[in-house]
Amino acid sequence: MPSKGPNVQFLGVILQCLCITASSQYFDPPGQSEQARDYLRFADVNRRCQSVLSSAKELTYDDNLPSRVKRELSFEKGDWHQDAGQAPLLPFDGGDAQRKAARWLPEPLSLATFEVTHVEDDDERRPRTAVNVSGVVILTVSRKSAGPEIGTYMSTVSPEFNISAGSTRLKIIFEGVYTERAKGRGDNYDGERVLCMLGSALLPKRSAAADGIDPWDWAKNSGRAGFQPPVTADNNILLVLQYPKELTLTTRAVLGKMRSTSAAPEAAYFDTVQLVAGLISYRASEYDFRPEALPDGAGDALSSSAADDPVFNRSMEDVYNGSYPCLVLDRYGLGGQVNTVLPGWRTQCNSTTGTCGHGVGPFDLGSAADAEVLAGVGIMMQDLQCQARHKDGYAIFGTATVSAVIRALPPWQDWRTAAGRSGLSGETLSAEGVWNASTGQVCMAACRGSTAGKEACRFRVCLLFPTTMSITARDTMLGRITSVDAHAPLVSFRQHMSPPRLWGYFPDDGQPLLPYRYSYTKVKQAGELRRKSASSFDLRKFIARTLSLRYPKRDGTEDHRRILSSLADTLTLCFMAVPSLFRQERIEQPVLHLEVFFLEQLVDRYVNASSAVPREENGSEGHPLLINVSAELTIFEERRVSSSVMSLEGVYNPEDGRMHLIGCRDVRLPAGRNSSRDLGLEEGMDCSIEVKVQYPPTTMHWFIMSTAKVQIASTRRAADPLHFDAVQLRALPVQYPQQMPGGFFRGVVNGVLCVALLSATIAATLSQLRYLNSHADVAPYISLVMLGVQALGYGMPLVTGVEAILARVTLRFSSDVTTMPPSSGGRTPYYMFDTGRLCQTIDQAAKVLAVGAFWLTLRLGQEVRRSRARMLARSPLDPARVPSDAGKVFACSYGIHLALFMLILALNGKAVTVEQQVALMPDLFLLPQVIGNAVWRVNCRPLRGSFYVGVTAARLLPHVYDCVRTPAVVGAYYDGQQAFTNAANHGRFFPRAGDVVIPLAAVALALAVHAQQRWNYAIVNSMGMPEQKKRQQMF
Predict the structure, then answer these.
(1) Mapping DSSP to helix (H, G, I), strand (E, B) and coil, where does residue 672 land?
(2) In 3-state terms, what secondary structure has residue 173?
(3) % of the chain at pLDDT higher than 70
(4) Where in the sequence is the signal peptide annotated (predicted)?
(5) Are the C-beta atoms of 691 and 711 separated by less than 8 Å?
(6) Residue 709 phi, psi dihedral angles, 5° rounding
(7) Alpha-carbon gap, residue 663 to 729, rounded angstroms
(8) Helix (H) or strand (E) holding 927
(9) What are the Cα distances from residue 1028, in Å, to 880, 934, 936, 1023?
(10) Domains along the chain with CATH numbers
C-alpha cells in the first residue's frame, strides 16, 4: 500500500497542470458572412419613389457598376439634423457628465453613416433606368466615435437601437433603387445620381406629449440594471440621397432627406431628417479639376507685403520650390495632424442675429464663444489630392493641381471624432487650386459649406512649406485664408513638425524631399547652463572613470548619417507620468515623450546614406565631444501625436551622458495682455526655461534598473505670471541598442542566476540528506508531496529549457503577467542566440545542475519511503501511526493550488504559460509540509533549517532580481497604453501588492515550518489528547 501513495501524488500534480492548461484555452467564434438579400418591397419602392423614377435616364451599364456604386455612394460620419417640430427621432442620455464631472467632456455630435451593402447585377445587360440596391444607415448621437461605425462582422440585415450614457445609435436597413438624372441641383451640375429607398427600423418610443414633460424621460440613467429601451418596429421610412455625377470644387456634397411616411399622430412618426456628407476622392483621377472655372484672383500667390506677421515674413524667405509638390503634400501636408491657428484671426459673425463670436476666420462654428475659447480651434486638411498638370500629353514642370477639404475643429468637440467627419457645413472649406514652383506656394479657391453659389466661393487659401527650422519655428506647413477680393488675412494656421522617427521610409530618389536646415540660436545659452551646472568635483564623472562606464555616443567614423540616426533614436525617452504643467483636459491618457528632432543637421532618419549630413568637426561651443541637439517634449494619445508642449535646444555631452537644453513653450497670454514684449516672449513663446537630462550608462542597463532623469525649471521670478515650480521627471527604463545578438547580456545574467539557484538548492538538499543520516527517525515526517513538487520543478526545465527555472507568475491585475519566452523540448534557450563558449558553458552547467537537483530530490524521497516502510513493519497492527500524504495532505495541497490558479486566471484576465504554472508550486514548496506537520502533529524537526531556509531563499532570487533589472521588452518607444502602464510599473520596487504576494507567502511558509518544528510538542500536550500523546512517545 505505501508504494502506491507517491505514484498517486505525482500523478495528481501532473493532472493539476493539465487541468489549468486546458482552462486557459479560449473560444473565438468565426465572423458571419452577409448574404445577398431578396428585394421583397419592390412594389412599395416603385410607388413611393415614383417621382425619382419618372425623371431617371437610361443607365449606361458596365461590368464595374456594382462595385463602383458600393464604393462611391457610401459615406462615413456625415452630418444629420431634424427639422423643427414636435416629433424628435433619437434621445440622448447625458448621465456620463455626472459621473465624470471633474473631467472635460466633449459635446455630442449627430453623425450619419451610410453603406451600400448590395447592388443587383444583371447578367443579361438589359436596358433599364434603375437598379435594385440595399444599404444600411447608422444615425448616432455620441460624444466620441473615432472608429468606423460599420465593422467587418457587423450584421447589415437586422435593425437595431442602442442607448447608453453618452451614446445613442440607430441602425436602419434599407432597400430601393439607384437611378441617374440628366440635370441636378444647379446650372453647374452635370447630372446627379439618386438613391430612393424604403427602410425598416426599431424606433424608440416617445412619452405621451404634454406640456413640461420630456418625451425622452425614460432614457435618463440608461445604465441602470435591467434597463430595456421601449421601441416600436416601423417599416414606413423613406430615404432619398442625391449625389453629384462629377466630383468638382462646387459639386462634392451629398444631400439626403429621410422622412416618415406614417401619419403624424402615430407613435412611429418623426420629423424630417436632413443629411449632408461630402464625397471622398479615393485617388486624384476621380476628382475633376477645373482651373478655368476658378474665380479671378484665387490663384494669386501671397506677396511678402501681404504677409504682415513675423511668422510668414520669416518663412517666406526660405520655402520649398522644387519639382515634387505632390510628394511634399502627401508626406508633410496631410498626415492627419491638427494645425494650430495663429494669433490675429478675425471672428465670424452670424448674419441672422448680428452677433459675433460664432467662429474663426471664414469658419462658422454654429455657436457663440468668447475669444479665449475660440483660440483653441484646430484646422485639419482632409481628402488632399494632387496631380501634375499636363499640356498636350506632357507634364508641365513645377506645376500641379491640388484639391482638399479644410475643416475647423471646435475645442468643444472630440477632435478624433471630428477629424473623421465627412459632412460639409460652415465648419468646412472645399478648396481647389494650383501649385507654382516659382513662388513656392499652393493657392486655391475655396467654397464654404455644401452650397455651390458664388457667395460661398469667395475665399482663397495659400499654403507654403518652410525649410528652415528654429526653436520658435518648427512648422512644416503654413497656411493663410483670405477673401478673394481682399488681401487682409481672415485666419492663418501652422502645421507643426511631427517627430522625425515616425515619418517612415519613402522610396524616392534617396534625397530628402525637403532639405531642412536648423538654425541653432540657443546653443550658447545652453553652454552657459552646462558650465554653471558643473562643479569642481563631479561624482558622476568620477564613478564613470572608475568603473569605465560609457554613455550613448556616436561610434565609428563611417556613415555619419546612420550613426547620428541611431544616436537620435537612442536619446528618445518616454515618461512614466505627465506633470500638471503639460496636462491637457481633452486627453484622457496622455503619454509624454522627449523626441529628438535634429542632431546637428540630421532630421530625416529614412533617406539613403548617399544624402550626406555635414559633420561638425569642432563640436559645439568649441568642445570636440559636444553635439548640438534640437528636441521636443510631445504629448501622445493612443499612439497618435497630440501636441508639442515644449521645444528644446541645447547640447549633449556623450562623455557623461548629460544634456543641457533651453526650453520654449507656447503660452496663452492672460486676458488684457496684448503685447508679448511686456512678458519677454519670443514670437509668443516663453523661452526662460532650463532643462537638464541625465542618461543612464550603456554598460550597466542590462543588469540593473536604468532610467533617465529630467529636470525642468523656470528662470523667471516667482512673482512672474509665467513662472512655474521645478519639475522632476523619471523616464521609463531605457533599452539601448544591442551590440550583440538579442538577449545576450540579459541571457548571461539569467543563466548565471539559474546556476546560482540550482547550486544553492543542491547544497540545501545535501545538507538535508546528511541530517537524515544522523536523525533517521524523523524521515517519515517529511512530505512526499513537497518532494514531488520540487522534483517537478527541476524536471520541467529538462524538457522545456532551463529558462523555465526563472518563470514566475504574480497576482497582478490588467493582464500584467511576467511571461517567459516560449520554448519547447530540443529548442535552444532564449538567451542562446550566440554560439560562443560562454553561453554554451552556462547552458550546459545549468542542465547538469538541474539533473543533479532532480536526482538528489528523488534520493531524498526514496529515504522517506524506506523509513515509512520500516515504521509500518514495526507496527503492522497500527498503520495510523505511519504518516501518509495520500489523504488530507495531498487533497488540501491540490485544492489550495487549484484555487490559486483560478485566482490568477481571474485577476490577470488571460492564461499563463505552463512554465509559470509549474513554477508557482516550487515557490510554495513548503505548503504540503506545513499541512503535514499540522495533520501528523509532529513534535520533532523533520527538516533541517538550512534546507527549508536555503531553498526558500534560492526561490526568491528571481523575484528580487526581476524588481531591480530593466524590463526585457520595454524600450524608449511607446507601443500602446497597456505597454506604457506595464512599463511604468517596473519603475518602482514591488510596484503592486500582487508582486510581493508570492514571495511573502513563501517566507510565511518557512516561518510556519520553523514554528511547527519548535512548538508543536507544547501545543499537543496542552490540548490534552491521549491518542496524540501516545503517538509522541515514539520519540
Answers:
(1) coil
(2) strand
(3) 71
(4) 1-24
(5) yes
(6) -120, 140
(7) 15
(8) helix 927-936
(9) 11, 12, 9, 9
(10) 41-278 (no CATH), 310-346+374-518 (2.40.128), 522-604+625-668+683-733 (2.40.128), 742-817+837-968+988-1034 (no CATH)
> How far is it, in rounded angstroms, from Cα 456 to Cα 14?
77
User: The pTM is what?
Assistant: 0.70
**Would you say the C-alpha torsion 777, 778, 784, 789 has a positive or negative sign?**
negative
Per-residue b or e along 783-820, where b marks 16 or more CB atoms closer than 10 Å to that residue's CB: bbbbbbbbbbbbbbbeebbbbbbbbbbbbbeeebbbeb
- Which whole-number Å values give the CA distances from 237 to 32, 89, 270, 545, 1011, in the listed order? 27, 12, 10, 81, 79
At residue 972 the predicted structure's pLDDT band, cuts being 50, 70 and 90, is very low
Residue type at 640 in one-letter notation? R
Angle at 495 between CA 490 and CA 501, to 5 degrees: 180
Query: Cell for 668?
Result: 496663452
* Grid cell digits, residue 518: 536648423
pLDDT per position as a tens digit, 808-864: 555 544 333 333 333 333 333 433 334 456 667 777 788 888 889 889 999 999 999
- Please report the pLDDT score of residue 631 as a whole number: 94
**In b/e form, how buried is each residue of 390-407, taking b as 16+ CB within 10 angstroms?**
eeeeeeeebbbbbbbbbb
Q: How confident is the model at residue 1017 (pLDDT cuts 50, 70, 90)?
A: low
Q: Is residue 739 pLDDT above 60, yes or no?
A: no
CA 225 to each of CA 164, 232, 535, 929: distance values in angstroms, whole numbers, following the listed order: 12, 22, 66, 48
Strand ranges inside 667-808, DSSP E: 685-694, 709-714, 727-730
Count of Cβ atoms closer than 10 Å to residue 833 Cβ: 14
Give the bridge partners for 649, in sequence order. 630, 662
SS3 labels along 803-841: HHHHCCCCCCCCCCCCCCCCCCCCCCCCCCCCCCHHHHH
